[in-house]
């Protein structure tokens, strides 16, 4: 078995190097249950509140050193994205990543944000978002629709890989616990299901589990 986070071999490219000889398994930050085991705590409002803001990265939970989260964020940006894809507009990519981290749970449109981060082409922003998603920093959740075109043109919702990461890197202290809680629910669902959407129509639903093209939950 080979595990790791080497930027030269992201999971999306394992098929190129190990054709027919690999099985992909996703490992996410600790769940609330795992957090409780690590901390030797019981389920309670207090422990859940702590988990909501601390997140699930094991090393950070052991040390409480927020610099570890900052370093992790910067390392992924630099090693897995900037160096890997030869990105020259480093400051623009950093502005995009910071904007996304401060807006978890909100809708996002690449065409509307490009000027704010000093990028001319919408496709550039879309490509960067794809790199960020492939590196497991963010997820971009589509609106559920029977129309493929509607899914493509509708804004996507932003979720971070870890609520502790989002909270520690937010310049406005992420006082809106609702957005953090929504992000945490997304992470819990994503641990179980690969395809999550949101829905807006006559009503609204934050999360729709989609399996084989059909909403199941």
How many helices? The count is 11
Please tally the β strands and state the result. Answer: 6
> For this entry, what is the oligomeric state of its chains?
single chain
Percent of residues in beta strands?
5-15%
Which regions have little confidence, pLDDT < 50, spanning 5+ residues?
none
Report strand order across the widest sheet. Answer: 1-3-2
Helix content: 40-55%
Main pleated sheet: 3 strands, antiparallel
Overall average residue pLDDT: 88
Task: Write the element-wise H/E pattern from the N-terminal end onward.
Answer: HHHHHHEHHEHEHHEEE
User: Could you tell me the radius of gyration in angstroms?
Assistant: 18 Å
Question: Helix/strand-derived class?
Answer: alpha+beta
Q: How many angstroms separate the termini? A: 34 Å
The number of domains: 1
Q: What overall form do the CA principal axes indicate?
A: globular
């Amino acid at each position: 078995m080979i595990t790791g986070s080497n930027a030269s071999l992201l999971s999306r490219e394992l098929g190129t190097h190990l054709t027919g000889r690999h099985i992909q398994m996703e490992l996410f930050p600790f769940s609330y249950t795992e957090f409780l085991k690590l901390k030797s705590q019981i389920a309670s409002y207090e422990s859940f509140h702590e988990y909501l803001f601390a997140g699930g990265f094991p090393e950070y939970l052991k040390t409480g050193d927020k610099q570890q989260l900052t370093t992790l964020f910067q390392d992924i940006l630099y090693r897995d994205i900037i160096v890997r894809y030869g990105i020259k507009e480093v400051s623009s990519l950093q502005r995009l990543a910071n904007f996304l981290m401060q807006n978890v749970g909100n809708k996002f449109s690449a065409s509307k944000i490009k000027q704010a981060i000093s990028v001319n082409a919408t496709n550039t922003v879309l490509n960067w978002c794809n790199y960020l998603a492939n590196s497991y920093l963010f997820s971009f959740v589509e609106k559920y629709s029977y129309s493929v075109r509607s899914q493509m043109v509708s804004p996507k919702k932003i979720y971070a890989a870890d609520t502790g990461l989002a909270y520690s890197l937010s310049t406005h202290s992420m006082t809106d616990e609702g957005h953090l809680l929504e992000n945490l629910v997304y992470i819990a669902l994503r641990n179980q299901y690969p395809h999550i959407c949101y829905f807006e129509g006559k009503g609204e639903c934050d999360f729709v589990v989609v399996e084989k093209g059909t909403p199941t939950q």
